[in-house]
C-alpha cells in the first residue's frame, strides 16, 4: 500500500498516511480561513492507521453542528498540519493538502461552506458544492 508524508515548514512535525485519500475537499468557512490565513482550507481525509512524528500543539474548536475538532500544528514553525474529529481519532485524519508538497495530488471533489467562498475563487469543474456543511 503506497504511503505519503506531509510535513510542517521546518520538518519537526510529520504525518505519514497510507493508501489513497478517502476524499479531498476545500472548506471556505470563516474558521478555516482564519486558521489557515488563506481564503479556504484544502484537506484530504485518510483512513487510520497513520503515524505522527514530532511534537504537536493542539487547538480544539467546536463546529457549527457541535462536533469537536482537534487541530495539530507545529510549535516551532506554526504550520497547521492535520486534525481529527473527537470520537473518530482511531478511524480517520484530515491532512492539509499543501503539506504534502505534491503538485500532482488529486484535486478536490467537494467544496463546503460555499456561502463564505470569496467571489474570485474559481473551483475545478465538476466539484460538488454545499452552501454549508452537509454532515
TrEMBL record:
<dbReference type="Pfam" id="PF04828">
    <property type="entry name" value="GFA"/>
</dbReference>
<dbReference type="GO" id="GO:0016846">
    <property type="term" value="F:carbon-sulfur lyase activity"/>
</dbReference>
<protein>
    <submittedName>
        <fullName>GFA family protein</fullName>
    </submittedName>
</protein>
<dbReference type="InterPro" id="IPR006913">
    <property type="entry name" value="CENP-V/GFA"/>
</dbReference>
<dbReference type="InterPro" id="IPR011057">
    <property type="entry name" value="Mss4-like_sf"/>
</dbReference>
<keyword id="KW-0862">Zinc</keyword>
<keyword id="KW-0456">Lyase</keyword>
<comment type="similarity">
    <text>Belongs to the Gfa family.</text>
</comment>
<keyword id="KW-0479">Metal-binding</keyword>
<dbReference type="GO" id="GO:0046872">
    <property type="term" value="F:metal ion binding"/>
</dbReference>
